[in-house]
Specification:
The chain has 8 helices and 17 strands. The protein is of the alpha/beta class. It has 3 domains: 65 residues, Vcp-like ATPase, Chain A, domain 2; 170 residues, 3-Layer(aba) Sandwich (Rossmann fold), CATH 3.40.50.150; 47 residues, no CATH class. The strands form 5 sheets. The chain has a 7-stranded mixed β-sheet, with helices on both faces. It has a 4-stranded antiparallel β-sheet with strand order 2-1-8-7, covered by helices on one side. Strand 9, helix 3 and strand 10 form a beta-alpha-beta unit. The longest helix has 13 residues. It is flat, with a radius of gyration of 28 Å. The structure holds S-adenosylmethionine. The site of S-adenosylmethionine has 22 residues, from helix 3, strand 10 and helix 5.
């Protein structure tokens, strides 16, 4: 199902999002039947924490409407790049939007960009490159794992991006990128265990006017090797950053007003008597203040992003 065009109604074959809450979403391929573990074709019933839904019953629903589950309800939404990243089938570790948004900005991706990516992995980042370039640009994406290449190709095709992407099986550290790409790329992105082994091929692939480079690495030792290689090959503006997300919640809170007068008044004595009699504390007066809190769980380290510019002289 195309991610590019908005759709009105669910038809058979669509990949839809069943949205229960921000932490409870399900990606479903709308097919009436599925094959079970015993090889038998059975009616496809999807289970959620709010009960089940017969997938066939989703056909004909308008996107954005409520659907009944056996113990609750959900909304049926059209899949897009952001929802796909949150719900895609994981074949590898993937990149998420905080890192991805920085990558797109720093690589100066625009609708006519020619981008090279390795490895494709689960295609999370590839979908964002495709969303940004799918009018005049092209994405060449490489992975040495055969099944990942086949599955990514199928997904790009299903999501309407086939015209804008070429997926190839290749070990880019051993063999570089394909020759026809020499001098063609505006930007190269690497998410590989040993990106430093591919830097000399990056210099060949970037346009004669030069271009931008980015590498994502979880470990600082990978970053160190990569930066040394970038320097050796004449890259400029080498910069490594880490994106750490921090969410803040603005809230109004009631705080007790502290009484600092230690002098007991007639009223205090009376109140003490009331406490003794009723074994109940008096309600302290409170004041409303506007405050900001951190969320209890903050996302931590994902990886380091190393950016650089290459100019051919
Ligand atoms: C962490 S995954 C990439 C995830 C991807 N960025 C995403 O957002 O879904 C790394 C991928 O690099 C591939 N890979 C590792 N070494 C490679 C090499 N030398 N050449 C091509 N692909 C390679 C692996 O097979 C794996 O699929």
């Amino acid at each position: 199902m195309s991610f590019i065009e908005p759709k009105k109604k669910v038809i058979e074959g669509d990949t839809v999002l069943l949205y229960i809450s921000i932490n409870n979403m399900h990606s479903i391929k709308v097919t009436p039947n599925i094959v079970n573990k015993n090889g038998e074709t059975i009616e496809y019933t999807h289970q959620t924490t709010f009960g089940a839904v017969k997938v066939k019953s989703l056909i004909g629903h308008e996107y954005g409407t409520k659907v009944q589950l056996t113990k609750g309800y959900a909304y049926i939404l059209q899949m897009n790049t952001d929802l796909w990243t949150l719900n895609l089938p994981h074949r590898t570790q993937i990149l998420y939007t905080p890192d991805i948004s920085m990558i797109l900005m720093q690589l100066e991706i625009n609708p006519s960009s020619v981008v090279i990516e390795a490895g494709t992995g689960s295609g999370s980042l590839s979908h964002y490159f495709l969303r940004a370039i799918s009018s005049k640009g092209h994405l060449y994406t490489f992975d040495f794992h055969e099944n990942r290449v086949i599955q990514a190709r199928e997904e790009f095709h299903e999501h309407g991006y086939e015209k804008f992407v070429t997926v190839q099986q290749r070990d880019v550290c051993a063999n570089g990128f394909t020759e026809e790409l020499n001098g063609k790329a505006d930007a190269v992105f690497l998410d590989l265990p040993a990106p430093y082994k591919a830097i000399e091929y990056v210099t060949k692939a970037l346009k004669s006017t030069g271009g931008r480079f980015c590498s994502f690495s979880p470990c600082i030792e990978q970053v160190q090797h990569t930066c040394l290689e970038l320097e050796k090959h004449g890259f400029l503006e080498i910069q490594t950053i880490e994106i750490l997300q921090s969410e803040h919640i603005v809230k109004e809170k009631h705080i007790p007003i502290i009484d600092l007068s230690f002098v007991k008044t007639k009223r205090d004595e009376n109140e003490e008597k009331v406490i003794k009699n009723n074994e109940k504390k008096p309600q302290l007066p409170t004041r409303k203040i506007l405050t900001t809190l951190n969320t209890p769980i903050q996302p931590g380290h994902t990886g380091y992003l190393t950016f650089a510019t290459f100019l051919k002289v």
